[in-house]
Design brief:
Number of domains: 1
Distance between the termini: 35 Å
CATH class: Mainly Beta
Number of strands: 23
Radius of gyration: 17 Å
Structural class: mainly beta
Order of helices and strands: HEEEEEEEEEEEEEEEEEEEEEEE
Helix content: under 10%
Bound molecules: calcium ion
CATH superfamily: TolB, C-terminal domain
CATH architecture: 6 Propeller
Strand content: over 45%
Largest sheet: 5 strands, mixed
Length: 254
């Protein structure tokens, strides 16, 4: 519990008094989500969610109908694997694992395993700019990875006016920015992929997402941008819904 205490203190210090723009969204749409999906990676392709789920013995790669939440196709990962971030690039799905140090590469169409790459340290979130992969590991560091080799090309720290922003989790590329869930919080941080400068925060604390919290539900995790509409969708680990969120202006006027 000690780590939760310190994360809580850090959240109050860094997020609640952010110097950067803060927006407080509203929910504008809601779709069903498998309450047994421990969401670790989420993205949109047309009418589908592509999703990576975690927990040892329960981790999957899945293709889900966005309207109904029905799981259309699923690959179960090895028993010892804890699935993490997911990105789609050039017809391939890249799927991280938490502490195993393996990135699996799947053919998007066949869901067949194409390759496995080793990497040092932990894997949390993953996204892409269409050329390279961007990977979080629970710290403030983002590693930029070569999709051909999964070797590190460079790295940067995500820095706000208050200092580094650690606990970066699921990622999403949003119009030239990267957005990240901040683990154990209801905040999303927006930052610049060239140098990690924080551009703003999205504060989800006031949303009635709490209705969905229960003994079995876990933290917010999962951001997906609909390439067709620009809509932003969020969910959490073991949540029974995915929400589309929108906001008019920065809540702190910046
Ligand atoms: Ca995502």
């Amino acid at each position: 519990m000690r780590i939760c205490f310190w994360i809580g203190l850090w959240l109050i210090a860094t997020l609640a008094f952010a110097q950067e723009p803060v927006v407080r969204p509203q929910i504008v749409a809601r779709k069903p989500h498998d309450p047994e999906a421990f969401t670790q990676g989420l993205l949109i392709e047309g009418a589908l969610w592509l999703e990576s789920t975690g927990l040892r013995g329960e981790s999957t790669l899945r293709e889900v109908d966005r309207e109904s939440g029905e799981v259309l196709r699923k690959v179960d990962l090895p028993e010892e694997t804890f699935g993490e971030g997911l990105a789609l690039l050039d017809g391939k799905l890249y799927q991280l694992s938490w502490q195993e140090g393996i990135c699996r590469v799947w053919d998007r169409e066949s869901f067949k395993l194409i390759a496995e790459y080793k990497y040092p340290g932990e894997g949390w979130g993953l996204t892409t700019d269409g050329k390279k992969l961007y990977m979080s590991d629970g710290t403030a560091v983002i590693r930029v990875m070569d999709p051909e080799t999964f070797k590190e090309l460079r790295r940067f720290r995500v820095l706000s006016e208050k200092g580094p922003v650690p606990y970066l989790n699921e990622l999403e590329w949003v119009e030239g920015e990267i957005w990240a869930n901040v683990f154990q919080s209801k905040w999303i941080v927006r930052f610049r992929p060239s140098d990690g400068k924080v551009l703003g925060f999205i504060d989800l604390r006031a949303l009635p997402l709490v209705m969905d919290y229960s003994q079995t539900q876990d933290v917010l995790n999962g951001i997906a941008r609909d390439p067709a509409t620009g809509g932003i969708w969020v969910t959490g680990k073991l949540w029974k819904a995915v929400y589309q969120i929108e906001w008019p202006v920065a809540a702190n006027g910046k």
